Amino acid sequence: MKETLTFRAKEADQEIKSDAGKWRITLVPPQIIFDIAEVREYGVKKYKDPENWKRVEKARYINALFRHLFAWLMNPYSSDRESGISHLKHAACNMAFLCELQAREEKELERLEEEIMA
């Protein structure tokens, strides 16, 4: 990993670049990003539309998440029969979709609350 990605801000450094209170993305293990990207590449090849995941109901992602998670729990080295990709990687991708959809719903609720209160 490049040295420039390492977060080393000290209190005194805040005069140069204010990072206090901001997330340190370098804390996220990069492997999960690669794993989700692998599943997404497969999905884009299969469905041809990189944005189609946004039109799927949350319940379907919840069901897929549990299917892949249970398959992984039964055999941590197992892969999805169709894609050949690890069930754990598929579970991570489904979780990412759910996190994104949840964040969008929360943002929309906040917007509606602000609209009502205005």
Head-to-tail CA distance between termini: 47 Å
The total beta strand count reads 0
- Helix tally equals 3
- How many domain units? 1
What's the shape?
extended
For the CA atoms, what is the radius of gyration? 19 Å
Helix content: 55-70%
Beta percentage is under 5%
Major sheet summary line? none
Protein name: dATP/dGTP diphosphohydrolase N-terminal domain-containing protein
Pfam families: dGTP_diPhyd_N
Domain dATP/dGTP diphosphohydrolase N-terminal: 14-107
Summarize this structure as a short list of keywords or feature phrases:
single chain, 118 residues, mainly alpha, 3 helices, extended
Question: How are the SSEs placed, and which strands pair?
Answer:
Blueprint: H1 30-47, H2 58-74, H3 87-117
Kindly summarize this structure in a few lines.
By secondary structure, the protein is mainly α. It has one domain. It is built from 3 helices and no strands.
Task: Describe this protein's structure.
This protein is an all-alpha fold and 118 residues long. It has one domain. It is 56% helix and 0% strand. It has three helices and no strands. The protein has helices at residues 30-47, 58-74, 87-117. Helix 1 (30-47) packs across helix 3 and helix 2 (58-74) packs antiparallel against helix 3 (87-117).
